[in-house]
Amino acid sequence: MTEPEPIASAPMVGLAAVILAATLDEPRVLTVPVAGQGAGRAEGLPAGPLEPAHPTLERGLRAWVERQTGQSLGYVEQLYTFGDRNRRPGGEDGGRHALSVAYLALVREARPAADSAWQSWYRYFPYEDWRAGRPPSLDALAARLEAWAAAAASPEEGRRRLDRIGLTFGAAGSGWNEERVLERYELLFEAGLVPEAGAPDALAGQAMAFDHRRMLATALGRLRGKIKYRPVVFELMPPAFTLGQLQRVVEALSGVLLHKQNFRRLVAQQGLVEETEAVTAETGGRPARLMRFRREVLLERPAPGLRLPSGRAG
Amino acid sequence: MTEPEPIASAPMVGLAAVILAATLDEPRVLTVPVAGQGAGRAEGLPAGPLEPAHPTLERGLRAWVERQTGQSLGYVEQLYTFGDRNRRPGGEDGGRHALSVAYLALVREARPAADSAWQSWYRYFPYEDWRAGRPPSLDALAARLEAWAAAAASPEEGRRRLDRIGLTFGAAGSGWNEERVLERYELLFEAGLVPEAGAPDALAGQAMAFDHRRMLATALGRLRGKIKYRPVVFELMPPAFTLGQLQRVVEALSGVLLHKQNFRRLVAQQGLVEETEAVTAETGGRPARLMRFRREVLLERPAPGLRLPSGRAG
DNA sequence: TCAAAAGTGTTATCCTTACACCCATGT
DNA sequence: ACATGGGTGTAAGGATAACACTTTTGA
């Protein structure tokens, strides 16, 4: 009656890494060149097949990343297993499945090696960066999305599309929600507005090979959510940093500006950081005290993180 | 330099489903018998290999579940891909990897079919049920965990173990955190206190085949977290229900009792439900108004859910 | 002297928590 | 009458958001 165990046919299993860092005020992702699909070279994520020699999935991932980029990974967590879309090559493989287990990694230093390169992740998602106010490209995107909704087969379908647009791109009830990165990308994909889906221009951002941009979107959404209840930002910070630097990194990740005073108070009274003796001279203005992450906070609070204090202000 | 695409060797890929329901006051999981490892039959989750005929992972999962249990699934989300532990059969397969992509499914009705059976999930995690106060088995477990910490190779390792015990089982700072189901299970596993790891008795709950109990722990933790910011509880409720029923289901999921008045206010003012005209006679006491889920809340609030109003009270 | 960034303090407001209490039905 | 669960109101406390303001450096 019952099968003995989830044993399998012979699918292809790949490993892929979304490796993020935050140097200066820019959030970065590590990319490698990929022999082009059709025309020339494309950008992609470090990736490779799972091999029998790999002791675990995660160890296999680390091996591939070191080999392709020279980067060694610290914090690593599993993101999602992709297998449903753009991953069945049709007849050529006799219908074999192609899965890809994607991981999120956070690193401190950004030493690019071999062919790899660090890119700002807003290169792939320009409309996700609200630090300088509402991105102008959103107006054009919104217009195209509404046209897509209007072109729906039935009125109900049109209404559903409008609801989704409002939900993911704001306008509905509560405005922009920075965590819905993946939902926005999938909506643009369905509407045919991303280059991967055949859009003529790059209004919705730079394309990536295969479904790597979907993986990146998944990673950004996850990270934007996670900084609120886990102190993962510090995986991106040097051992000592100023509160201003910390704030700029959080702003870079979340894509929105924060209220300075409240951010400082929040960080301080949550016990996330402690002072060091050192101060730094720095770019213009009064020297700032250097802080370090307070590891003990993990034992004290149930969900220590940076509940973003909303408002935009200097 | 760069490999063309995450293409693979020949691992075995399985699909597994944690199917949850809430009938009356008990939270349930759907299990199937598994031809025993060693001695007799064990309980397991519905599962089966990914096959070339499956159009997507999720469709493959639905097919396996219907075939093994007769249950058709509504809400389904991917949980995690397990592959690192208990999943390399050693020499027999020449070192092939065995992965398992686990899914969480929520269903309304509990019609058992074939060999499958609904079990209370606290059968597998008795210490997770705090509805009748602190479970007595926790005292014995805590004693064994402390013995495990004391038996560490080095003092630092002993301290680390104590920290983890405090963090996952309470005592540290903030007491019991109902979301850390997986972390608790993994700690018990490492300490050798679960039957799967060879513990002599079932103090830490009933065993399951393979790593299925780990999957169940992952599912419970995810669900306990998710009800706080997504209205997933309603996937478990009938179309019309009383606020009392809703509260009892939430309590069953989270394993803690809630404060009645605040729960009602919360649900009401969040706009999660709306009244129907009907009332129900019910078990003892004044007849209650029947409510239904307000679907529009999805469009209105960024994260509609049931932020548990802490305290235990009638 | 001024710009720029660091850093401190205070107040209004909202949400959470807790407590007290009334209502309608079955036994 | 009373037990049981349904249902409403309100006051105290804490966290958030917004505001105003001082300090210390470099140009």
What does this structure look like?
- Two copies of one chain form a homodimer.
- Helices cover 30% and strands 20% of the residues of chain A.
- Chain A contains eight helices and nine strands.
- Chain A has helices at residues 57-69, 137-150, 155-169, 181-190, 212-226, 243-254, 260-269, 297-300; strands spanning 12-23, 26-34, 42-44, 47-49, 75-82, 98-106, 117-120, 273-280, 288-293.
- In chain A, the strands form two sheets. In chain A, strands 1, 2, 3, 4, 5, 6 and 7 form a seven-stranded mixed sheet that branches. A two-stranded antiparallel sheet of chain A has the order 8-9.
- The first copy, chain A, starts with 11 loop residues before the first strand and ends in a 14-residue tail after the last helix.
Please describe the topology of this protein.
Two copies of one chain form a homodimer.
Chain A: E1 12-23, E2 26-34, E3 42-44, E4 47-49, H1 57-69, E5 75-82, E6 98-106, E7 117-120, H2 137-150, H3 155-169, H4 181-190, H5 212-226, H6 243-254, H7 260-269, E8 273-280, E9 288-293, H8 297-300
Parallel strand pairs in A: 1-6
Antiparallel strand pairs in A: 1-2, 1-4, 2-3, 2-7, 5-6, 8-9
The structure holds a DNA duplex (27 and 27 nucleotides).
Protein name (chains A, B): Membrane protein
Organism (chains A, B): Methylobacterium tarhaniae
InterPro entries (chains A, B): NMN_biosyn, NUDIX_hydrolase-like_dom_sf, WH-like_DNA-bd_sf, WH_DNA-bd_sf, WHD_NrtR
